[in-house]
Design brief:
By secondary structure, the protein is an alpha/beta fold. The longest helix has 17 residues. It is globular, with a radius of gyration of 20 Å.
């Protein structure tokens, strides 16, 4: 492409291992095992290549990145390369010692995911006893150390009533940012969709609560609201647009335009073990497949929002319509928009299928 954009973020999925069993886990159904993970040296090479490419932020993620014994070494390598480092974690393993090591290594920011404010209910959803207490202890430690903290609250039908308390918790902890993040239905969240999907009334109430909270906490707490596509009239720009802002590197080294892209059939994803990151970004078949607007069908092609939402989510089009090239059904202009609404209002269940490394 002649107008190749410069990526700004690297999502480094260091591992798929995780002590939690969240029913909305967005990692693939088939997880990468430990013996297939990139080694320390390869990850350090990726981090240096990312900095040379112009990337500014690295998000150290998983699974749970704290299960990697080399996390401090990787954090320090990213820091020395000039990257802003953000640890995306459940925090259940962020002990005093681990935090001290990461802080000394140059960690800039921590994002902690929470399942709610009621410990019993939150621990039940995470399938991890004592998780909520560990998260709160870690959050206080981070703020006391003067480090930036984001709270990521994953919202679904069974914790929507806690949203005001979640906002209050973020304020009391001293977080600088709160993500009110509705479940995005990829990976393990798809088989649990009927148990997680909020009602439209719940969504609209949450939207109003966020609007009011933003006004109340302006200047002290940034609140992002990640909407559920199933109640949208226009799609989001997935990852800022396919192949436009973010590179995802999986635990086994595949470079993806988004974290769920490996679900797309017939796609070839180059591996950082074999090709430089810059070459993959600029020339790989996968990154160029849905980059820009030339690939778009009608009504996307020629739409005034084509370079705003960049066609929405290809993985969502595949999972709902069976066609990754179709117009994202989240868009009201899609001939299949009604299918999205049907799924949003489908009969609810109260049973979760919890995530485990074996499936």
């Amino acid at each position: 492409m002649t107008d190749l954009p410069v990526p700004i973020g690297l999502l480094a999925e260091l591992t798929h291992r995780c002590p939690l069993g969240c029913p909305y886990c967005s990692n693939p159904i088939e997880l990468t095992r430990t013996n297939a993970e990139l080694d320390t040296k390869t990850w350090i090479n990726v981090l240096n290549e990312a900095a040379s490419l112009g990337i500014m932020h690295v998000h150290l993620s998983g699974g749970e990145p704290l299960v990697r014994p080399d996390l401090a070494e990787l954090t320090n390598a990213a820091h020395l390369a000039g990257l802003y480092t953000n640890l995306i974690t459940s925090a259940v393993g962020l002990t005093v010692q681990r935090f001290s090591e990461l802080r000394a290594a140059g960690l800039d920011h921590v994002q902690i995911s929470i399942q709610g404010v009621d410990p019993a209910r939150a621990d039940s959803v995470a399938h991890f006893k004592g998780g909520t207490r560990a998260k709160l202890d870690a959050a206080k430690r981070i703020v006391e150390a003067g480090m930036a903290l984001t709270i990521n609250a994953v919202m679904h039908r069974n914790n929507m009533d806690e949203l005001p308390a979640i906002i209050g918790l973020a304020e009391n902890l001293g977080a600088g940012r709160l993500e009110v993040a509705h479940v995005q239905y990829h990976g393990w969240a798809i088989p649990n969709r009927a148990a997680l999907m909020p009602t439209r009334e719940q969504f609209l109430e949450a939207e109003q609560i966020v609007i009011e909270a933003r006004a109340r906490f302006e200047g002290t707490l940034v609140i992002d609201h990640v909407m559920p596509d199933y109640f949208a009239e226009r799609p989001k720009a997935c990852m800022g647009g396919w192949g436009r802002q973010v590179i995802v590197v999986t635990p086994d080294g595949r470079a993806l335009p988004c974290h769920a892209a490996a679900t797309l059939p017939g796609m070839i994803f180059d591996n950082v073990r074999k090709k430089p990151l810059a070459d993959i970004w600029g020339h790989s078949e996968a990154f160029n497949r849905f980059r820009g607007t030339q690939w778009m069908p009608k009504p996307c092609n020629g739409c005034e929002r084509a370079e705003i939402d960049w066609g929405g989510c290809r993985c969502q089009a595949l999972s709902i319509l069976g066609d990754a090239t179709a117009t994202d059904p989240a868009c009201a202009l899609s001939p299949n928009h009604a299918r999205m609404k049907e799924l949003a209002s489908a009969s609810a269940t109260n049973t979760y299928r919890f995530r485990r490394i074996g499936g």
